[in-house]
Design goal:
Distance between the termini: 74 Å
Helix content: 55-70%
Order of helices and strands: HHHHHH
Largest sheet: none
Structural class: mainly alpha
């Protein structure tokens, strides 16, 4: 028999190696994110140049204020859309709860239906399918045994009970069986 289990030292070393590889991958991912952020900022934000005169400084402030207004307007529109969507979702949830409460599912009743009626309901009134299940059954003649006849032809049940009443009746039962 070959033992397929690893020793605990081998398990420990494999686990430590896997953790080291995972740590290296996480470090590389963090460095990649920093580089991506740096590239994005270089592409979308021009280098800051300090104006040398008061006039240039005022123009820079006006440009920045115009950009801030555009961004604020977009943010306001997006917030308004988000609030409207959240309110619509709340209204729809309330409608769902109301509809669930209004319409209670009635308990279904068992309906006796013949096979022909069931097929007609399933296939529609266009298809006339007759399914006579009794047509293919064999006719069997029932043989009546003499014991069954005696049991059936008991006669008046009151008289039978009176005969068996009391100890004398029980004695007659035992005598008749023996």
């Amino acid at each position: 028999m070959s033992d397929k289990r690893m020793s605990s030292s081998k398990k420990h070393s494999l686990k430590s190696m896997m953790l080291q590889v995972a740590k290296d991958l996480l470090d590389a991912e963090a460095i990649e994110k920093k580089e991506e952020r740096k590239r994005y900022m270089e592409d979308h934000c021009p280098p800051l140049s300090y104006p040398s005169s008061k006039q240039e400084l005022q123009e820079l402030c006006k440009e920045l204020h115009a950009k801030i207004e555009v961004v604020d307007e977009e943010r306001y529109i997006l917030e308004h859309k988000a609030i409207m969507i959240v309110n619509e979702v709340k209204d729809l949830n309330i409608k769902i709860v109301d509809l669930k409460g209004k319409f209670k599912k009635p308990p279904l009743k068992k309906v006796r239906m013949s096979a022909d009626a069931m097929l007609q309901a399933l296939l529609g009134s266009k298809h006339k399918v007759s399914m006579d299940l009794r047509a293919n059954l064999k006719q069997v003649k029932k043989e009546v045994k003499e014991e069954d006849k005696e049991l059936r032809d008991v006669g008046d049940w009151r008289k039978n009970i009176e005969d068996k009443a009391g100890m004398g009746g029980r004695k007659k039962m035992f005598e008749s069986e023996a």
